[in-house]
Every structure is written in structure tokens, then in C-alpha cells.
Amino acid sequence: MISGQALVQARGVDVTFAGPVRALAEIGFEIPPGQFVSLVGPSGCGKSTLLRLIAGLTEPTSGMLSVAGQRPALARRKLARLSFVFQDATLLPWRNVRDNVRLPLELLGTAAYNRDSLVGNVLQMVGLADFAQRYPNELSGGMRMRVSLARGLVIDPELLLLDEPFGALDDITRQALNEELLALWTERRWTGIFVTHNIAEAVFLSQRILVLSPRPGRIVADVRVPFATPRTSELRAQADFALLVGEVAQCLRRAGT
């Protein structure tokens, strides 16, 4: 685990695109190692832009953003322990499940004799050990997302960024994958930053929720989620869960006025 008070830190971050379009304004937060944080907000508020900033895939127009005390792009190159899971599974159709999951290890130059055991372990973790030789077109949407998640976890990341990975799935599959993802986080305790439009999903998964306003996105609420882990599906039926979902929804409504 990376030491220090904050793994991800932002101060006064603004992003303006050509147009000009101000996407993010005065963003500030700190995320300590091992915390699972969700970003919620209306469409177009800059949630995915913020995730790309943290990944070092784009730069802020102004302000300071750091990962492990360094600029995100530099941290990604030096630490090599950051994974990004996209909304689409983005699997290579000519590679089977095992070889898709193996790809990050190949790119990092992991010794060949270690790759099989690492891939085998992570496929077991996500329940795909029996599907290692299948190809993406032979898998359901939920299984493809499990492969994408396994590919993100195979390097044992310090920081896992997830951009609405379950947004296109039906509710039952989505809830099942929420439970699997949370179980994996409980076991491994990587730092997770999860973008979603689904408030109940954010409450179920997170220790903390950052609520963004309409564009330009500003953080208008930092909501602590008090439920202990591990969490089970029964939590969704409890009154305090529904109450917190309602409180976050109210934060979003206030932000839009």
C-alpha cells in the first residue's frame, strides 16, 4: 500500500475545453489509500473528465492534481499500478478470456512464468476460471464485464478507476456484479474511484460519495457512507439504506437548482 495521508489529491482544479466549455470548476478533495469513493452527478457534469484527469489521460487547465504526490501521468508511468475499467468491456475479439486478462502483464513486461498463475488467480476471483478459453463473442454482457474487471485487477492495482462499468447491464446482473466488486475490494483494499449515475449503486459500493453539480462540475457534497463491510444484498432493503439514497438524491436536486 502506498504510504501517506492522501493517495489522490485535488486543489482548485479547473478544466476548460475548446469552445470554450468549462467542464470542471474549483474541484478539491483528498482520497486516502484504500478508500472506495463514488462520483455521482447529472450527465455532462464532468465525472468522466475527472476520472481521466486522475488517470493522467488529460491535464487540468489550472489547479493541482496529484496521485501519490506526483502528476498523474508521471505516477502512472512510475507506479505502473493504476488500472482503468471503462463502460464498454473493450476486449480484443481475437484473444480468448485468458489472453485478454494477460495483456496488462505483457505490456508491463511481467516475467512469462508468473503470468499464468496471476491470470489464473484473478479469473478464479471473478468466477471465470471455467471460461478461460472462451472468446468475447461467446460471453454475455455481464461475463464480458467480469473479464474487463479481471484485466484491471490482474496487476494488483493500488488505484482502480471505474467509469460506469455496469451502466449497460440489467439490474439483476448489475447488482450481482456490485456485490462481487465490493467483495473484491473488501479482500484487497485497493483505492477505488467509481463513476455512476445510479445513486443506490454508489451507496451500496462506497465508503464516500462525491456529488457533482451540473456543468461546470463542482463538488457540492461529500457524503460519508456509514455501512460496515462486508455488505450483502439485504442492505438494499433496509430503511437506513433508502434514507441515505434519498439524501444523496436531494443533494443532486439542490445542485441542479
Overall spatial form: globular
Helix share, percent: 25-40%
Query: Widest sheet: strand order?
Result: 5-6-7-3-8-9
Domain count: the total is 2
Low-confidence stretches: none
- CATH topology description of the largest domain: Rossmann fold
N- to C-terminal distance: 41 Å
What string gives the helices and strands in order? EEEHEHEHHHEHEHEEH
Total count of strands:
9
SSE-based structural type: alpha/beta
**CATH homologous superfamily classification of the largest domain:** P-loop containing nucleotide triphosphate hydrolases
The chain-level mean pLDDT equals 91
- CATH class assignment of the largest domain: Alpha Beta
Largest sheet: 6 strands, mixed
* Radius of gyration (Å): 18 Å
Written account of the structure:
By secondary structure, the chain is of the alpha/beta class. The protein has two domains: 1-81 and 160-257, Rossmann fold (3-Layer(aba) Sandwich); 91-156, no CATH class. It has helices at 47-55, 72-79, 97-108, 112-125, 141-153, 171-188, 199-205, 239-255, and strands at residues 8-17, 21-31, 36-40, 62-67, 82-85, 159-163, 191-195, 208-212, 219-224. The longest helix has 18 residues, at 171-188. The radius of gyration is 18 Å and the shape is globular. It starts with 7 loop residues before the first strand and ends with a helix. The mean pLDDT is 91.
